[in-house]
Design goal:
Blueprint (H helix, E strand, L loop, with lengths): L20 E3 L6 E3 L5 E2 L2 H8 L1 H30 L10
Length: 90
């Protein structure tokens, strides 16, 4: 079973789709270098504007974790009951 489910997601400009966005040092202000769209809310505003993409990525990761968990559980059950004549795990 996989042990590390970390992933990263690059925030995109909602206007042009660029990932070339400069954030101030304190991340309170941002500006897209392609279309010059300003984000006075900085990082938090970008996260809010990219929420649909973030939610989709989280859902994909959930499915992957569920599949890995089910496979791991199935493998452990098979191992635990190996050799048993009365219990079969498919």
């Amino acid at each position: 079973m996989k042990k590390n489910y970390n992933f990263s997601l690059t925030l995109r400009c909602p206007v042009c789709g660029s990932t070339d966005i400069d954030l101030s040092e304190d991340k309170a202000y941002g500006k897209c270098n392609m279309c010059n769209k300003e984000f006075p809310g900085g990082y938090d505003e970008l996260v809010e504007l990219n929420q649909t993409t973030i939610d989709a990525a989280v859902e994909e990761k959930k499915v992957e974790i569920e599949k890995d968990f089910a496979k791991g559980l199935n493998d452990r059950l098979k191992k635990a009951f190996r050799g048993s004549k009365n219990i079969k795990i498919k």
